Amino acid sequence: MHIHILGIAGTFMGSIAIIAKQAGYTVSGMDTNIYPPMSIQLKEQNIDYIDNYKEKNLPNADIFIIGNSLSRGNECVEKILNKRYKYTSGPQWLSEKILKDKWVLSVAGTHGKTTTTSMLAWILEYAGYNPSFLIGGVANNFGISSRLTNSDFFIIEADEYDTAFFDKRSKFIHYKSKTLIINNLEFDHCDIFDSISDIQKQFCHLVRTIPKNGLIIYPQNDLNIEQVIAKGLWSNSKKTIKTNLMPSKNGSKFKIKNNTIDWKFLGEHNMENAIASIQAASHVGITTEISCKALNKFEGVKRRLEIKYQNNLITLYDDFAHHPSSIKKTIAGLRQKVGKENIFVIIELRSNTMKSGFHKNSLVESLELANKTLLLRPKNIDWDIDKLFKKSNSVSLLDSVAEIVDMVSEIKKGHIIVMSNGGFENILEKIKLKI
């Protein structure tokens, strides 16, 4: 059977392509602006794709899987509808063809999904469970974002974004999870949600899908999640435990039930992700001791404070953070490690929510621990971003990547974090040529 995937460049849809290929299907796809790491993964899996959405390039296929980045008006979508070709969404296909006989462990929430999903997948792998998984990034322990095995267990990053133009439910509704982590809950995706209550409604639907013998794990003192749980809970639930984070020679360490995790990762957010993944792993029978041993060998995720270049004076990091809470936690974690050394932050406001200005005040606060921030001025926004940073001596707004790179070339010592959830015009390679 030939599956053709529209929107294959996205991490989720590209990962669907990899799973379909491993399940024995013939897979092809199309998208625009396909960049690493997904372009590399598709090539490694020998999955062909077309870098445009021209109607004439739409192949004959048995079924078309349409990603949520496509909408009415796309000429390929219009042809599929006019010709009455068989089509579905990625989450629906995954649910019907792959997940229906699996114990699904899902990780949901506004931040930390990719890292926590990677941790949980690695714990099960270390424990010998050989899990299938779909992660919204490349887990370094696996070198890939998804895989399909003969295991009974499937670990998935459960996104609240909508499923497709013809199915406006959140993707995670389709997965029929038995174990669910909700990391946190804040407002995001202003292009499809009007308020935090809109997002909470989707999470309420998610909670209703968890069976009575399932388990929901969520943090203490998160009011938005507590409000969701208060609207109805039919499953077992467990709040994450509290423990103290301490610095170590490598990065940070903490204890859980007399077991110590000592790793290179920074910040309380990574500790909290680890605790949630350990509790989820316990639901399938993995002891805390085994989970901690696994996490001591956890190698992280690409683009999560990933070191891209380092010499005696400068360290350059690539980071996916694009929401003020994530930005703040990432900078705070690095600050805890480097003390008074200079931290320079370079940011592209790329998501619809950030460009809308909804989080503009918390964005200012999120940058307070940085010594200097270079921010690419967004185009086509209807609010005054210059006024927002007018009184700041530590934030500079620049109109091009070239201007940013020129300013970075003047940095002689410190830590430089590039933050974006996109390709950012290949800025990391341009910076490496200058420093």
Describe the structure.
A hairpin with a 2-residue loop joins strand 10 and strand 11. It is built from 15 helices and 23 strands. It is an alpha/beta fold and 435 residues long. It has a seven-stranded mixed β-sheet with strand order 8-7-9-6-12-13-14, sandwiched between helices. Strands 18-19-23-20-21-22 form a six-stranded mixed β-sheet. The protein has a five-stranded parallel β-sheet with strand order 3-2-1-4-5. The mean pLDDT is 92.
Q: Helix/strand/pairing class, anyone?
A: alpha/beta
Share of residues in strands:
15-25%
**Sequence stretches where pLDDT stays below 50 over 5 or more residues:** none
Question: Within the largest sheet, what's the order of strands?
Answer: 8-7-9-6-12-13-14
CATH homologous superfamily designation of the largest domain: Mur-like, catalytic domain
Strands, total number: 23
Mean pLDDT, all residues:
92
Q: What is the fold-level CATH name, i.e. the topology of the largest domain? A: UDP-N-acetylmuramoyl-L-alanine:D-glutamate ligase
CATH architecture of the largest domain: 3-Layer(aba) Sandwich
Kindly report how far apart the N and C termini lie.
Answer: 50 Å
* Broad shape: globular
| Biggest sheet character | 7 strands, mixed
Radius of gyration: 22 Å
Secondary structure tally, helices: 15
